[in-house]
Amino acid sequence: MIKNTIVTLFVIFFPVFALPNTVFAAAPSVESMSNSGTNVGRYEKFELTFQISRKFDANSFLPYYYYDAADTPSRFPGRTSPYGVDGITIEAHFIAPSGQEKTVPAFYFQDYNRAGDKMTPTNNYSWKVRFAPEQLGQYRYYLTLQDKDGTTRHPSTGYLTMNVNKSDSKGFVRQSSRDPRFLEFSNGQSFIPNSSGLQWWRNGKRTTYYEEAFQNFKNSNVNFFRLWDQNDSYGLTVEGHFDAYEFPDDFKPTDTGVDIASLPKGTQMNQRGNYEEDIIINSAEQNGVYMVVSSHGDPYWIWDASVYNENWNQNPVTFDNQQHIDYWKRNFRYRVARWGYSPAVVAWELWNEHGNVSSTSSAYRFYQTYGAYQLQTDPYRHLRTTSQGSQAWSPALWGSNAFDYASYHDYMMISRYSADLTYDAGNFVYRFAQCIRKDNTSGCGLGLSDTSQWDGGAKPIFWGELDTGTTQWNQANPAQRATHDMRWAGLFSPIGMSPIDWYYDVQTASFLSEKLADARIAGEFFKDIDYAGARFAYESTSDVRISSSQISTSNNKIRVLGMKSQDKKQAYVWAQNKDNARWDTSIVNPSISGNFTLTGMMTGKYNIEYWDTKTGSVTKSSASSNGGNLVIPVSNISRDIAIKIRHETYSSGETLPTTYPGDANGDLRVDGVDYVIWLNNYNTNQQGSSKGDFDNNGRVDGVDYVIWLNNYV
User: Fold this and answer.
1) Average of per-residue pLDDT across 95-118
2) Count of domains for the chain
């Protein structure tokens, strides 16, 4: 022991005596810091702004490289891009009133002066931390800074504090703990995506276009869209293009004669694009709009490890190439640091439209590694996804632990599908929804060729893109009737959302007005339906049926898509005149009448509401079940109607849960955090769920573990 002590002292002091003139670099430290206020609402943004002792040139890539001692020239010789060993890791550690600790990465920030859509850069650079607290009460926090010269803590001892109060925010969108097929907010309220396309700006505008669109969305009950933010020079760009920015245009390097090979390579976030995304996300929050943030693919031109086989990339790598993985890790870490705080962000989508992905492919291996990193890095657990397009659907991929929901894209085109699918959006949407809800696609007859098996638990599935085409997917052929039917069929399908229409950027003003009017009515119809809590079973007429139970009608021209609650007290139906279902004709055939029968309903009287899906007008009636059979009459259906069917004992509106069995930290989610709380108190005499005593018997034991396990999501 004495010998070891002497050796240690020798190592520490020897350089001082041997090289008295050597200057040692100091570990990075915080020089100054301010905050956005010491009182913050639950799920709202708390922000720290600070300067550190280590300085960077304006165009340096290193602020975007977290410190990685393994990423060195000796491991990856010969590359010109920076190495992680020269990077820096700055993190804030927030300790909730329950004792739960969350680590949030900091990010490098450049300020801009905004005049409408014009962003003028300043020379004001700083570091920021953004955090959204999920518990009420006092939080403690501190920062750590690390690079190759060492690690420091701020403050050096003790903690800084902030107080969290109640707010109107519903919190983050999660996979429902009541029905894992669907979504709910942190407060337990169902989230039903009522969607619109809005993947990039248009009409010569940029951020102001989004701000105007979100106001229209709010007024029309549209609550969901998909944002492309890593594009190749025609839209919002977080990372990835040569930024010869001159308002209102962006340029590709080749547009201005720049040799792509001459551009410096490495991770460098586009500060102007990030500032624009700040504006977009802030506006979405203010208008109750939620989004999937899609990074689209590898950034163009600046990564020296890309899978793209292009003339500017003569040596494409495989998806699971370590340097390619490292690029995506840096990109994702910055996204979480800058926008992870926002409940408006539902999900991170990495790639736009893979083909079939085999479980033996490099892409599959990449997602298993990357998905684990996402869980490690994102303290808010936003949903993780990618997407597949146009008859590419890989159940084994989506069933894996790499993703929290699956995303499918397709286009109704006569060159791909039969006329009864191509020109009948209700038929198309409902058939595909049933098929991709199955563990495999056998027997669907829809051209999906991946025969793998979905082996994981149920997850949400999104229609990330859907629209009407010609014979080519990229030839816009928007049809408002199809968009209307896509919305209603999607909401009544086992996917439980309206598909995101793709061709929004060529929709005329009258088309858009009619589309938003449809969305407003759909939003009103579903606003008091607890979609996740009802645990719906799906039923339909035989003309669209693959896996749903069958509904019988008195008139075979009536199509019925139905949802029946587990308690048999409520059902919701979309009824359509099949003679007027095709979107490729302007002919309006005569209205139809008849009835349909729901079976297995609770005995008693039912209150019925018939909703006109074009005008929003509501007609009320009633009916009674006989031996569980409930016959619902419909009359004079020209196009379609939506129907609410509720037992007289049904109490309208959602009853939000105040807690779930196994939820120790009160975030209305039973997850690994609750397990840690249980584990830390295991075999002790403590009472209450907050201590892991889920059966409230004053003892934290194995029974409580079983309660946690049975409710784990």
Assistant:
1) 96
2) 4
